[in-house]
Design a protein that fits this description.
homodimer, alpha+beta, Dna Ligase, domain 1, 5 strands, globular, DNA-binding
DNA sequence: CTACGTGCAAAAAGTTTGCAATCGC
DNA sequence: GCGATTGCAAACTTTTTGCACGTAG
């Protein structure tokens, strides 16, 4: 077997891990970059992607795939239990939904074997709903 | 208001519409291109995208956003009723699931306003499940 | 000191757009 | 003929990779 290349503790790796751990919602790689640059201004997006990949491999973080949008990443300690997500149609942020409808396998056509499922809600997050009306998205 | 630019019936537009209408599952733009090229060999991918956009706008087709994969498009007549999707982890194809768990709004955190939801199943489609074991994906 | 990690720029993959040529009406 | 539509190529976005330099251990 391979010599199992040893991980090194770098400033950028620490900053990236901190940003993801501190967030209470799944973040985009760009959000991670922006957050981590407060501690390592010269940080490059390539390094963010490389570290996200290694954190995924060692199980520290979790990918949140979304219908019609780029994946977010969240700390695995926040994602220990099976749950789902809510994307705000106003601010585009994604939040956890700590619940699951449960048994859904019976819904699929005959012969199909279900391994897992993803459920995503769309609407207004508490914050954007409070700001009333139909206002714009930040982009 | 604008003069409402009038639509023209071209060979490529007809071919594209036919392919999507004839499919009994949601297709990728590339699948649409391949199918439509049987009738219009010189068809370009840009034209497929432009026509998909205009078909979306006039409501003839429907976008199927998927977590972690590119969107598929399906005929609106096939998608008249609310339903969900199943993506095969072997062949990557997407199929309709003509059912819905129903009331899920109670799952979201306080203050969040749910407008809609997407539910995607993953596993083996009937065909790939029949072919037993854990075989490769076509790509 | 050594090789893992980083920054930069170029490459991939999917989608969009500018522009001149084409073709429906 | 006029203008919508097309094909091609270039631009764009998100993510990945090659390469030379930097740096942790």
């Amino acid at each position: 077997m391979e010599p199992a290349t040893k991980e090194r503790a770098t400033r950028q790796k620490t900053a990236i891990r901190n940003v993801i751990d501190a967030a209470r919602r799944p973040l985009t790689p760009l959000e991670v970059l922006e957050g981590a640059r407060e501690q390592v201004p010269a940080l490059s997006i390539a390094t963010v992607y490389r570290n996200i990949r290694s954190l995924l491999l060692d199980g520290s973080i979790h990918m949140v795939p979304l219908p019609g949008d780029n994946p977010r990443y969240e700390s695995n300690q926040a994602a220990a239990t099976h749950h789902h997500h809510f994307q705000c149609t106003a601010c585009q942020r994604v939040f956890d939904v700590l619940d699951c409808p449960g048994d859904l396998k019976h819904m699929t056509p005959k012969g199909f074997v279900v391994e897992r499922h993803e459920l995503t809600f769309y609407g207004r997050c508490a914050e954007c709903a409070r700001k009333a009306g139909g206002r714009s998205r930040p982009s």
